[in-house]
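Researcher: Please generate the 3D structure of the following complex. Treat every line as part of one assembly.
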Amino acid sequence: MWGLRSTRTLVIAAATVVFVVCCVLPLASMLAGTFSGRTSVGSTYAALLLDPRQRRLLFNTALLGIMTATFATVIGAPLGVALARLELRGKAILRVLLAAPMLLPPVVVGLAWISLGGDTGLLTQLAGRDLLSTWTHTMSGAVLVLTLVLYPVSMLATEVAVRRIEPRLEEAALIVARPGRVVWHITLGLAAPSITAAALVIFVLAASDFGVPGLLRVRVYTTEVFTAFAALYDFGRGAVLTLPLLVISTLVAAAAVALAGERLITTRRAMSGRHPPLFDPWKPAAVAAASAMVLLALVLPLAALVREVQGVRSWAEVVAGSGIAIRNSLVLAAVGATLTVAVGLGLGYARARARGTVGIIADLACVVLFAVPSTVVGVGLIGLWNRPGVLGTVYGTDAMLVLVCLARFLPLAVLGLAAAVRHVPYSHEEAAAAAGAGWARTISTIVVPQMSASLVAVWVVVFVLAFGELGASILVAPPGEATLPIRIYTMIANAPPANVAALALLQSVVILSPLTLLAWGLTLREAR
Amino acid sequence: MSSLNGFGPIHVFAALALLGVGACRSPEPTQSADRTVTVYVSTDRVFSEPVLREYEKRSGVTVNAVYDTEETKSTGLANRLLAEKARPQADVFWSNEPVRTLVLKSRGTLAPYRSPSADGIPPALIDPDGYWTGFSARMRVIAYNTTTVTPADAPQSVFDLADPKWKGQVAIADPRFGSTSFHVAALYAVAGDEKMDDFFRRLKANDVRIVDGNSVVRDLVARGEVKVGLTDTDDVNVAIENGQPIAMVLPDKAGLGVPVMPNMVSLIANAPHPEEARKLIDYLLSADVERQLAQSEAVQIPLHAGVKGPKNIPAIDTFKPMTLDYTKAAARVEDVTGRLATILGL
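Model: Done. Output below.
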């Protein structure tokens, strides 16, 4: 159809170069350094394999990731189905409220739950006795906090996937099967790859998170990596200790591929017509569940923050000087998300149209690279870009923060966009090619319009993650005012708790506002 | 759906990309490129930023500051300095505790500079090789809740924290990071491994609470969630100034001595602006800066004679400081970190 000399090859090749430079080389340079650095490679690798303590930490990490992914999917996927299929009043607002927890930094939610559930917390005061404090600083507490923050990933992915399902498939199935079987085998079956991909993303986000386990004193592997850098200043050890985390992620990704596989039925027509009312009997339960999640995941943590904020003496003092940081965060996150989606679209297309082993390897590579701890990425970027010449002119500018976004989140974008491209029938491209359209025109007029909702969803997720990114950003941000998370975290030390809560609220409001407008705008467009 | 609808997101994305390219900054000084200095600062931003802004006003030099987070929130500027060693971006490193500075010295990241402003600072707080100079010190203290603990009952020694009467009522920051890592390394260097291993085992048996940072220790003590905790003078002073029921004891005045942590300032090897770097170091080591830090909520103890100290903190010549070789203490950090990870189950 399109040969090797077509625009497609050029675009995919360029996207691949960006992917290798931004995502692969930082990790590769860090690992290469382990063979020339001060760390004894042999002893460090031996410690990984033989130390029972390390194995226990690996087990905890896997448990945290799996439990969080499971609960987040159990909560998020049904909500996504409800948003996709039920006529709900104020659905646009409800969607924003349900997705908003994802905008809150996990550490902030952790702090809020400590404030709520601690032995002098709000819940203790309301109940008259200590209900939760012994449970807060445990694996269960960490799973709860991360689940409440990450379930929107599953929800958004499921909603987009379910919207894409051809209604006629369900109608045809209803002729011969009960609604329950149709839901399970058709609706959820077709959405399964997206749901599984989202679960995998949640697993990696949870397993690679340091903030919440550190805050709740849960011993996981990321603390080992962090300790290697922060306590021992040993880059080689930190890079080597990343490997088990990547191995776990690879194993989970392989399991996900085995479970979800390449199951997908595409049709010759895009989504059209009205879906059968398969889910209407569950509408009251869906409304109740959505309300409960908004209360648990958004209202209660924000209430805890607002309670803390009552002690702020001067909001002007808190907000003063944050204007530049807010601007930088919004602009750089938007630019980073845009570039990430643009590059990710090319690679996601290539992955979606690849078959067999190549595609599976691409998926595993994306998962592995997404799991790389932020500090390893940051130190790797310094090593690559802080050099004389052209590379050095980039280092020391805001472009480094955009590179952080690409390095950390491009693999995620590729996974998400590949899942979206799969829903676009290849026959549509074939028809366009037969009509004489080039690849670029086919992509822009046939493929992209059919996946515009997914593009927006991936952009939103990357924007949110980029906005809140700290671990790598603080290592490469140019001197002078950088981003809002950097400003907040550099001010936390010895700032009054009320001011810390106020800054956390500020970050949440700053990121929520443009996304609310975007969601409202898209909803109006859909309504027309 | 019209064929143009699908371009909506693309148009938005393109506009954002163009906006972003235009908005990307390079670090352009407001004055000439020669009158710029870049300083990486590990001292709490709330205390250090006013000092640097004051220097900007007085000197006309643009100060590009990179601040650090709490030690448990990110891997810190010391790692950034190490990573940038081949092509430094920073001119000066201002640290709030010795370990980071000494690690950087050992890795060849610093350059020697003996500032004339260091005259009057005790020689024990100046590197004999000239790679760092101490100023404006803090101390490690035992904080106690004044509602539940009387001054007479308050522990007077770090080792008292392992007393069963304080079971479940002691908080310390994670001893692998920050000033607490310096404190425990210093204790191991001075008191010996056997005694310290035994102390931490007893502390573990006493259900010690290990938390995120010194400010968290202070908050737990002030709220009465624990009765006592190990933290820093500036952390406790913030709570005292806010009227919270907390006070502090200088530990081991009659024994090992009180651990003193000076700020340390260093010149970065191959700094891009060495002349401006030296001028900034001269300023930071001046009596005037020590006065600013003493009078702020940082309540840092001046090391220059004749500079008035903070109101809630004893002057450095009124108690017995821990006799300590900072280099030897810093060298123990890796080993001690491993020991405590095992003993305390970190």
